């Protein structure tokens, strides 16, 4: 099944070889729709709601980019990808960018020929177990059966963690979050491991979230962020700076509600440049001057997107932690808009 | 003067390639072949060109790098320090084990079910019809998942086997506390030797040699019994000799080497010791066996019905009982019809083992074509390798089965 898909992709890639060469920005504008590689379903980050519309933290970034590039945040087509298919989708050009909890690693950046343009969520790998298992540390998991999503960096971290602590485990390789949740609930594994944010998201959807605990150990660094293909730097810049615009907006206190008002009333030269009142930043990027204003107006600044999808007021209850602004002790920091 | 018909002397002209029927067929074939080769060449070149545009090359060196991931079920030694190549080999062996067992079980069951479907007993025949139609008309993938879910959701968790403080247990082990079926897998006793022969595999080798020897001696004895029967008409009593020769030497050797069983015991999170067979394997094997048994049953039925009715009537006229008629007259002839379609069934069963990924069974598709592919990002290389390996496996099965077919088919002289 997978084989024929791949061959089909190859054949299709061969047929459209003549059309290659145009930039991603031109392609997106000509198509009128942004193809965004998304998760098959991770509540809070990227999952279809009851009406089939994609909602989430990663999803809102795609919408902001669509608003910046196409002028309409609804012109996004979300293409669900699994841990296994996501990079093939991106490499083949099926999606224009991938915003799907993908960890920035050396080999993905270099060998796979991708660019991780920013980190929209600083994460780390954790473990979730049933409370009645009576385990309080991941180091007590000797001999446990662990559910693990195949094709992810967590798979390798897990092997390294157990090895360095000189304990053993039995892996159960599952395809995606939904499968992992089912197997974990059925008791096929003692522990489920993935990014701590993913664990929080899965836990929120379980029938009795309080029966499960997330162990304190964070065994890896998982910087998650939007990914584009190597070689199209203009497109990479657009994605990177749209994201930075959202972070800068939080820093400057620009929100979805006051963005129009700020554009007219502000005296801050950086805000003026950002919102396109002064200068020609949009032109430098290959867009019009109001790109950042539209991106912010779509779903608000970084902080608003965070709180609305995964913050403390949502069932997922993630604290800002490392993802707070640098002014508040976090790691979210943007280079100057100048 | 003799009448001589002068054949017009005519050299070969280019036009003859099209207008002369002797050459036309060859011309067309050569052109088709050239076009086909051009098309294949274009595809290959285009792939290479487009990969180069994306900055990708074809490189198999990832096979020798550290794999870094763990595999739950492996029959050869494997750790996450092994290479990707070794991980692929682990997967290949997992594939072959399931394929070989699946072929054997589905063939045996299929023959039985196929014969039963033709039974004169109305209930048995209808039951078989229901079974066959149910299994072969539902996609195999669904059966695999169904069996897996049933095993996983109905069996108790490993910790339920642990005795509570008051001595009560939620679940108990089967077969005199030797086998435990949990919701994760089946824990079986592991045969062990206290005093194995020196060297890695010498003990196993010794057992095999002794077994072969026993069978050989038994063969000589039964030949002698046959000769006696033909000479005197009385067959000597054989069964206890056969039993003694087949069992005693091996038993003696095992006892000498200190044979005992290691029973699985609940410790920590799970059963320790013994052999653990994951449900992924069990579910895949059961579903493959039942599905392909239903297909095989139909092939067997068609083979049996292809034999002229006169054959069985003649056998009955000679006084043969129905069972012997089936074994001696019908089945040997039916094999001619049965074997060719069976070959393609074995081939598809082998290829369908790749559906094991649905229940997390790490076969070749799961290791080389799954985790290795994802962790290294070498899609094309992994897919090409997998296609090559499946092709080789299939060609081997096909060659062996065809050789067998040639030996049983009707010899026409």
Q: What features would you highlight for this structure?
A:
heterodimer; A: 338 residues; alpha/beta; D-Maltodextrin-Binding Protein, domain 2; five-stranded mixed β-sheet; three-stranded parallel β-sheet; 14 helices; globular; disordered N terminus; B: 413 residues; mainly alpha; MetI-like fold; 2 domains; three-stranded antiparallel β-sheet; two-stranded antiparallel ribbon
Largest interface by Cβ-Cβ < 8 Å: A-B, 50 and 44 residues
Oligomer, anyone?
heterodimer
Radius of gyration of chain B: 30 Å
CATH topology of the largest domain in chain B, by name, is MetI-like fold
- Low-confidence parts of chain B lasting 5 or more residues at pLDDT below 50? none
Low-confidence stretches of chain A are 1-20
Biggest pleated-sheet summary of chain A? 5 strands, mixed
How many distinct folded domains of chain A?
2
Total strands of chain B = 7
Mind telling me the CATH class of the largest domain in chain A? Alpha Beta
- The residue-averaged pLDDT of chain A reads 87
The appropriate CATH architecture of the largest domain in chain B is: Orthogonal Bundle
Number of helices in the DSSP assignment of chain A? 14
The computed structural class of chain B is mainly alpha
- Please trace the helix and strand order of chain B, writing H or E for each element: HHHHHEEEHHEEEEHHHHH
Give the number of helices of chain B.
Answer: 12
Strand order of the largest sheet of chain B: 1-2-7
CATH superfamily label of the largest domain in chain A: Periplasmic binding protein-like II
Largest sheet of chain B: 3 strands, antiparallel
Could you state the CATH homologous superfamily of the largest domain in chain B?
A: MetI-like
């Amino acid at each position: 099944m997978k084989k024929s898909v791949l061959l089909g992709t190859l054949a299709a890639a061969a047929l459209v070889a003549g059309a290659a060469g145009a930039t991603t920005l031109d392609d997106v504008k000509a198509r009128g729709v942004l193809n965004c590689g998304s998760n098959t379903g991770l509540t809070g980050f990227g999952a279809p709601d009851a009406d089939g519309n994609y909602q989430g933290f990663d999803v809102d970034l795609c919408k902001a980019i669509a608003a910046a590039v196409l002028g309409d945040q609804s012109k996004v087509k979300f293409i669900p990808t699994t841990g296994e298919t996501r990079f093939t989708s991106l490499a083949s050009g099926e999606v224009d960018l991938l915003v799907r909890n993908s960890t920035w690693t050396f080999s993905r950046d270099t060998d796979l020929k991708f660019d991780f343009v920013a980190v929209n969520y600083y994460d780390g790998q954790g473990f979730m177990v049933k409370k009645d298992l009576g385990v309080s540390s991941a180091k007590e998991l000797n001999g446990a059966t662990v559910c693990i999503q195949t094709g992810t960096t967590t798979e390798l971290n897990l092997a390294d963690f157990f090895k360095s602590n000189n304990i053993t485990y039995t892996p159960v390789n599952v395809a995606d979050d939904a499968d992992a949740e089912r197997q974990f609930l059925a008791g096929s594994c003692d522990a489920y491991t993935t990014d701590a944010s993913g664990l929080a998201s899965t836990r929120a959807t379980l029938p009795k979230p309080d029966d499960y605990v997330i162990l304190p150990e964070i065994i890896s660094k998982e910087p998650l962020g939007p990914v584009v293909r190597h070689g199209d730097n203009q497109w990479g810049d657009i994605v990177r700076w749209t994201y930075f615009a959202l972070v800068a907006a939080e820093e400057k206190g620009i929100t979805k509600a006051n963005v129009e008002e700020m554009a007219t009333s502000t005296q801050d030269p950086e805000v003026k440049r950002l919102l396109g009142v002064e200068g020609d930043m949009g032109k430098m990027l290959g867009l019009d001057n109001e790109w950042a204003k539209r991106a912010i107006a779509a779903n608000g600044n970084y902080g608003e997107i965070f709180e609305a999808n995964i913050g403390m007021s949502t069932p997922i209850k993630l604290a800002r932690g490392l993802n707070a602004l640098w002014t508040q002790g976090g790691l979210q920091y943007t280079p100057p808009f100048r | 003067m003799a009448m001589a018909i002068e054949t017009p002397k005519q050299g070969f002209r280019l036009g003859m390639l099209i207008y002369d029927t002797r050459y036309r067929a060859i011309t067309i074939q050569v052109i088709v072949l050239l076009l086909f080769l051009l098309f294949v060449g274009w595809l290959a070149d285009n792939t290479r060109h487009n990969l180069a545009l994306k900055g990708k090359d074809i490189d198999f060196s990832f096979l020798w790098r550290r794999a870094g991931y763990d595999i739950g079920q492996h029959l050869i030694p494997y750790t996450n320090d092994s290479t990707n190549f070794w991980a692929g080999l682990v997967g290949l062996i997992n594939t072959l084990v399931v394929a070989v067992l699946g072929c054997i079980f589905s063939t045996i069951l299929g023959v039985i079910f196929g014969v039963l479907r033709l039974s004169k007993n109305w209930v048995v025949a209808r039951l078989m019809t229901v079974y066959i139609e149910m299994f072969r008309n539902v996609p195999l993938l669904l059966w695999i998942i169904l069996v897996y879910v049933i095993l996983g959701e109905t069996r108790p968790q490993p910790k339920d086997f642990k005795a509570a403080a008051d001595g009560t247990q939620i679940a108990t082990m089967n077969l005199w506390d030797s086998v435990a079926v949990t919701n994760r897998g089946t824990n079986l006793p592991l045969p062990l030797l206290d005093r194995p022969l020196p060297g890695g595999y010498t003990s196993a080798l010794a057992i095999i040699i002794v077994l072969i020897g026993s069978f050989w001696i038994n063969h000589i004895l039964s030949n002698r019994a046959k000769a006696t029967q033909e000479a005197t008409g009385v067959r000597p009593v054989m069964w206890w000799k056969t039993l003694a020769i087949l069992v005693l030497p091996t038993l003696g050797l095992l006892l000498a080497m200190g044979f005992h069983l290691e029973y699985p015991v609940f410790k920590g999170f799970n059963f320790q010791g013994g052999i653990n067979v994951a449900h992924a394997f069990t579910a895949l094997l059961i579903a493959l066996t039942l599905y392909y048994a239903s297909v095989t049953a139909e092939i067997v039925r068609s083979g049996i019905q292809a034999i002229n009715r006169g054959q069985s009537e003649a056998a009955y006229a000679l006084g043969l009982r129905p069972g012997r008629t089936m074994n001696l007259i019908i089945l040997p002839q039916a094999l001619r019809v049965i074997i060719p379609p069976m070959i393609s069934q074995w081939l598809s069963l082998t290829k369908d083992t790749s559906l094991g990924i649905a229940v997390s069974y790490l076969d070749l598709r799961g290791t080389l074509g799954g985790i290795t592919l994802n962790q290294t990002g070498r899609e094309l290389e992994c897919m090409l390798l997998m296609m090559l390996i499946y092709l080789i496996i299939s060609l081997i099965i096909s060659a062996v089965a065809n050789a067998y077919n040639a030996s049983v088919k009707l010899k026409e002289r």
